[in-house]
Automatic annotation (TrEMBL):
Matches recorded under InterPro entries: DNA/RNA_non-sp_Endonuclease_sf, Endonuclea_NS_2
Signal peptide: 1-25
Coiled coil stretches, renumbered: 44-85
Name assigned to this protein: Membrane nuclease
Gene3D superfamilies per UniProt: Extracellular Endonuclease, subunit A (3.40.570.10)
Domain Type VII secretion system protein EssD-like: 122-253
Keyword field contains Coiled coil: yes
Domain of life of the native organism: Bacteria
Key words of the record: Coiled coil, Signal
Amino acid sequence: MNKRKFVTIFSSFLMLLTLSGCSNAQSSQGTVLAKAPKTVVKYNRTAKIKATKIEAKNRKTEQKIKTLDKKIAKLRRQLKKYSSAHAVESVSAAKLATLTYTGKDIIIVNNNDPSFSKTDLSTADGAWQRYGNLDGLNRVTTANALLNKSLMPNSPREPLHVDPTGWHNKRIAGGWLYNRCHLIGFQLTGQNNNLKNLMTGTRQLNDPDMLRYEDEVAEYLKESGNNYVRYRVTPVFRGDELLARGVEMEGQSVSSNTVHFNVYIFNVENGVRLNYATGTSQIK
């Protein structure tokens, strides 16, 4: 082999080695530069969602507790107005007109159970109110209602100007002797100057005695538009007397026992002798 041929062969051999090295280098670089597949990490947020719901529920519960605390405080204030001279015994409704006041303003009737039938408690016709016609002596009779928030007034009460039977008002120590008492309180239905819903009643009868039960009903109705209370107030007269001896108040919440009472409240005023035949009075 001559020298020129050897050089040619050796040069070719070196070229092959060089090409082979480049190929390997390119292959190696391609491997390094290849993008790794994306890893998708999914977080389980179930616990966080549950925690958020529990926190929201706790806030609602705290608000309910605050509302109940306010109601309890209000009831405690109301109870301070009452002493042992108030409701203790129970009588039948048939005997109410024969009762004589002996120092107890409020008497429980029929073990505090209102006498409403299942039909009376039906909400099929929605909220309603009905007032009995005046009797032959122009005396107020019974007021009935299925109360709901929808019946409650949205405007302030206007002054009363009609005079029910037995209206012989006068000033006594602390103010006027009589009030024009609504059978169904204005705050419950908005009825105002309606002679079928007004009677002559002492301040003591109206406030605090009747108002105590009216407020109980009003608070329940305000809690929800789905709350209903069957309500009846009956003035009790003896014979042909023009001034009622008292009123029977019955209340029953529908689908619950939250509101439940049947009471008789005497129409009396401490320190005053009332003439029930006419409505006139004398200071004792």
